[in-house]
Amino acid sequence: MGRGKGGKSRTQRKHFQQNRENVWKQPRPESLPSTTNLFDIQNPDFDQYYKEQNIVSLQEWDSFVQVLRTPLPAAFRINSSSRFHADIRSQLENDFAPALQAIVVERDEENAIRPLPWYPENLAWHSNFSRMQLRKNQALRRFHEFLKVENEIGNITRQEAVSMVPPLFLDVHSNHIVLDMCAAPGSKTFQLLEILHQSTTAGSLPDGMVVANDLDVQRCNLLIHQIKRTCTANLIVTNHEAQHFPGCCLNRHYDKMGPDQQASELLFDRVLCDVPCSGDGTLRKAPDLWRRWNTGTGNGLHNLQILVAMQGLSLLKVGGRMVYSTCSMNPIENEAVVAEVLRRCGGSVELVDVSSELPQLIRRPGLKRWKVCDKGKSLVSCKEVPKDRRSVVLPSMFLNGGSYRDIDCNRICDVNGDSEDGVQAVYPLMHEFTEEVSDFPLERCMRLLPHDQNSGAFFIAVLQKVSPLPAIEVKTRKEVDNQHVESVNQCNEDAQELQNNPSESTHEVREQISEDDKNETNNADFKLSPLIGEGDSKEAEAPRNVENIAKIIPSKRKLRIQSKWRGVDPVVFFKDEVIIKNIKAFYGIHDQFPLDGHLVTRNSDTSHVKRIYYVSKAVKNVLELNSVGQQLKITSVGLKIFERQTSREGRSVQCAFRITSEGLPLILPHITKQILSASLIDFKHLLQYRNVKFADFIDAKFGEMAANLMPGCCVVVLGEGNRDEAEALKLDESSIAIGCWKGGASLTVMVTSMECEELLERLLMRSDRVTEKGSSMHEDELSNNVGNVEQESDGNSKDVETIWC
Ligand SMILES: C[S@@+](CC[C@H](N)C(=O)[O-])C[C@H]1O[C@@H](n2cnc3c(N)ncnc32)[C@H](O)[C@@H]1O
């Protein structure tokens, strides 16, 4: 499964796909009859291991396991970027909550659905029903249908409650450059983008951006699909091994830079390090894990997790925050990783005490002591690890870290890790193995357990970089990487052995580590991070100018990069002035909406461009600087804003590019032509019939004005009717608009029927709400009040969004 398998992800990590967020892909366990209840499967290794780890007290054990053996209740998030987020929240609070409560009262259960108390603005909800119950229970059908449709449309996202927590501790601001290192399928990236966009007004973009990375191309595609719903121009999706995420360049004032000016290394304000893990925190969602669980999985991932976290910290700005998280309960993947990272960073990184943040979230402190287990044996210190297991059971797993070299050579090191012979040790030498608890304030880590708030399990640690990371000798780094390779090899051998003895399976570990890991770990070329950097690898390297960046990459490496990325479409700035001028003129786009330099395509033959993407200023800067060396392997970038449209009208259409659904919220306030305002009744008419002849509009003047538009793409805004001058349309965040096509005799709506139905229903609900408020308004009057109703509902006009279906 090495490199060169035709554009496929280099490491197909089957077990990740079975864990975590994508349990929808759960395969049926082969060896079990279909009638077996997966929740009943016993795994004595699991019980023994976690009892020894004391993750809960022995008195609590039964209730812990009992909850772990019940299906996970459904949870979901209202997307705050959704046009209707306030309506949906109100529907949940005032309609579904009381209706469902009536059902559960009969069954003597509590809290049918409720907002998660720790999630801001009642935007995340817990339902006491598992997915199975929702699917099978007639009484719950309407709620289930609601969840399905809103999820499909993008107004809500189903997400495990505990998985929503890490982004909330990242403290993201709208101007932050954020790296999501292991991002697919993108639930947390979605949250990060929502936070970034939170305070932007219609037609504007935040200064910050998110780089969402994942090793698995197919999972990257899932992420891209999911994120499309946020309509963001502030995202780059990349496809790298997170532990080798390349150094990039950035200058926030790139616009004003001359050719000789310096570009600085791209460091991130925030890093989310939601690493691949054994995933036993998802047992309630993926009960098949009961059968597959073994200690080898966590042990096999430990080193990769450290490498990813170290790379994240090296790419983090001084003063920046990184959140390390897993959905595993295993201390080897959690506290042991955090302890090792703190050890390697030698005081330049601190564990943040976040006990006062999200006070309503029930959490437990991180463990201060744990045990290492290998092949059913508990090991107290790395002294006890037999030589042939040393590549699998690493010193960093133990409370006090250390290195086998120290045991073997018995060299004396000072506190800085310098040995007598002047060679720096891999890590500071182990203390005596008598200490019983870790020296680090690991109690600041957070453990979320299933029986505390009826959820899955999660682990979260918040880290802050307080100074540049210490330089580590490159030889030592190679050694660290080699250790990873050895561990991989040993895991492969273990897997082989386990084919004969399946009771202690570590096969997932084997799948998880790629051939590439083996090949690449010895390459210390062109890495800016101290973990795998060159020479003395000072973290704050000298700034580079654009030309130097290209020179830095050795040509061999460049070739490798290019061939490695074969099959990935290039990112090309779209600069065809004729087309850009044509688009601008056709839609009357204001000059203050910058197009120059903000448009990109994925087609190097720019004469055959089909889709044009809009990128925010921050994304543009990163692209401009990084395209030089092609450091970033970009899977997706920007917001699809224009798409070539062929039509029956053929050449009579003056602009071949239509505005896309995703692109309209951004461009709507900036267009002055091909835009009409319809009364509520005609707007509904359009949604209902999807194709309406000019003569059939209720408002004859509107029909006339539609007939007078240029053939091609146009926009219909819900308003007072009879208005076509953009100034008179008074577009703002409350505007509701749909994309249409003006043909020879009719207007056709250019959105799916599902979206039309949903929008119709939402408009109906708003009308009902106005009527309920005692107003006996006429429908025409209602159209003027659509925006006002929402503002009344929460008194906050920023919550009201432009609507584009
Ligand atoms: C726990 S999941 C991430 C979930 C994601 N943060 C979310 O909230 O939707 C871990 C992800 O790491 C990816 N992965 C595994 N090894 C990786 C590596 N070496 N570098 C980057 N991503 C990796 C997997 O493909 C998987 O999508």
Beta-strand level of the residues, as a percent range? Answer: 15-25%
Query: What ranges have pLDDT less than 50 throughout 5 or more consecutive residues?
Result: 1-32, 410-434, 473-480, 487-564, 774-805
What's the assembly state of these chains? single chain
User: What general outline do the C-alpha atoms trace?
Assistant: globular
Helix content range: 25-40%
Please report the distance between the alpha carbons of the first and last residues: 43 Å
Query: Would you tell me the structural class of the helices and strands?
Result: alpha+beta
Number of helices: 27
Number of β-strand runs: 30
Integer-rounded radius of gyration: 28 Å
Bound heterogens, unique: S-adenosylmethionine
Mean pLDDT: 77
For the biggest sheet, the summary is:
10 strands, mixed
Care to describe what's here?
The protein is an alpha+beta fold and 805 residues long. The protein is built from 27 helices and 30 strands. Strands 5, 6, 7, 10, 11, 12, 13, 16, 17 and 22 form a ten-stranded mixed beta sheet that branches. Strands 25, 26, 27, 28, 29 and 30 form a six-stranded mixed beta sheet that branches. The chain has a five-stranded antiparallel beta sheet with strand order 19-20-21-23-24, with no helix packed on it. Helix 9 links the parallel strand 6 and strand 7. Helix 11 runs parallel beside helix 12 (335-345), helix 11 runs antiparallel to helix 15 (474-500) and helix 26 crosses helix 27. The longest helix is centred in the middle third of the chain and has 27 residues, at 474-500. It starts with 13 loop residues before the first helix and ends with a strand. The chain binds S-adenosylmethionine. S-adenosylmethionine is lined by residues 13, 16, 20-21, 163, 182-188, 214-216, 219, 241-243, 274, 276.
